[in-house]
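To make this tangible, we now present a fold written out as tokens:
***
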Amino acid sequence: MRETDLVDRILSYNPKVDTRIIKKAFHFGMLMHGSQLRESGDPYFSHPIEVANILAELNLDTSSLVCALLHDTIEDTKATIKDVKENFGKEIAKLVDGVTKLNKLESRPDQSKAAEDFRKLILASSSDIRVLLIKLADRLHNMRTLKHLKNKDRRQRIAKETLDIYAPLASRIGMHEIREELEDLAFSETEPEIRAILIERIKDSKKKNNKIVKDISDELSKVLKSNKLKAFVSGREKSIYSVWLKIENQNKSLEQLSDLFGFRIHVDKIEECYSVLGVLHQNWQAVPGLFKDYISTPKKNGYQSIHTTLVGPNNHRVEIQIRTNKMHEINERGVAAHWAYKEKDSSNGEYLSSIAWMADLIDILQKDGATDEFLENTRLELSHDQVYCFTPKGRLIALPQDSTALDFAFALHTDLGLFCSGVKINGEKKPRRTKLKNGDEVEIIKSKSEVPLDSYEDLVTTGRSKSSIRRAIKENTIKNQRLLGKEIIKSVFSSHRKKPTRDILERSFGPLNVKSLMDLYQLVGSGKSSGSEVYDHVYPKTKRKTKRKRYYSKNISLQISGLLPDMDVSFQKNSLLVPGDNIIGITIPGKGITIYHAKDEELHKHENSPERWLRLQWKKEIDVTFTARIMLSIINEVGSLGIISAAIADYGGNITNLNLTEKDTDFYNLRIDIDVDDKGHIDNIVKSLKGLPEVNSVERLIH
């Protein structure tokens, strides 16, 4: 498609459009994408043009069309969001940024990626529904060109994702034409042989039914005209994918399906819809249970129509939809219809607010932590038809078909669902698992305390209910683990005649890698640690009962094995090594052996003399202490130093020197020298200090 063709199409429905910004975006996108090619061999910029064309067919606003032309520039070219903002303004930059963030996720084929992709799609759409419209148009063109992808697994993944997420989303916002095309394109990839067979069988059926469809249309038109009703009657075939779903779900053969075609009757005014319905029911018998009035009670996506099924002319069962012309436009194009002939300066939150289903999905998204569960729950919300029920005060609640009375409780409020002990349906007490029917009046009986949740998930259908139950079960489990862990710790400490105060227990945070008392209680209550382990970290076994002599340099050779005889030995100047450190010996002619820490930067000076390197080890039995040095940044509060000194003492460390190096309003730095037994001893002290809230940072120094 050329630039002029796109501009002409936009002018056909919006003569006042500013064509300059469309042309500017066209040239910007073409320049940025340059010579890039798609896998089909077509110029890459042909894709953004086609996405814009799809949106133009929906009569969308200028900002959406400009975004469509630019939507891949940030991800696939050198252009930045700043460039877009400077050239096209804040609104378009925000739209492009929203679509770009979604596109970045499509390179990861795993399940959690699909859920996270969908999370971000809903969140982005919650602030501007046009992000969703642009993304659907983007997916539609990618599906139209899917056959050019060489990787079969990738084609299958994209097709399945389209059936699971994008086609139901298109349906939910009322874009039924796009939904049907997405389904058919995906179906041709996932089940090509089945689709080919169905097409042939339906062609044969069509030859037989063409005359039937014409006869029924003529008869319906004749009856309406004789009753002075101005109406347009049209017959239509069901989509291949919807036929396949009916065959699968109803376990029927193609020949057994009586609704391969249906009829629509369009009128000008709402009151004429009901007049048409009255005439039809007077002339032909209605099939019980198959009448639905979506005009007085619209679907959540705004869909309005009257559905009825008749035993029509020549005893053929006939599905009929009755709607106004305006309803038909909105039903086919959904949210996009709201944008026809409108230029918006801001995101269309007013239209989004009418799409109640999105609020439900956002609620799940914000509360459900597990991405795979989120995807499962949102699929449930997207894929079901609806049932409409009432509270005793007359409030209308729309739920997916097959929802239970307990789902109704959760739809009203999460707490009402969690505390639901019983229900009344139309005044009669019923089990909470009872499936609801259109028009049911449901009263929830609330318990004063939370009811057992273990089997709750079997009583519900909707994603919102399942998500709330799983979250509540998880929260209860954590709560019980924390209570149990607290009692276990209390019992262990009592047996040693100690009190597990907050200050004392905080010493175990570092070694056990927890950040709060609640985390510590949960760790013990879940069985991942024990009360005795907590006690050992607070009062470690390394604490010395008798004072040991401190190491002096004159007896260094007694502590290390692997030294050469009759050679002077010394530690590198100013080093503070302790038994257990990895050490290297360097022989210096005329000076003897100098011992370095294996990570000491000074060792690089001897890289070219490997013959001088000695592998050394500490002896197993060492009966003297060594000095280790640590640097701490601690909170400048009264008592901080005392808490740190006590923690070091409890771990058997003896402070020999302490220097304040820096101080400001909030923190001060301390350099502390400590007598320790070995590396394990100082490591335990460092870990315990890291767990203290008074300590901002701590590290061991080897110089």
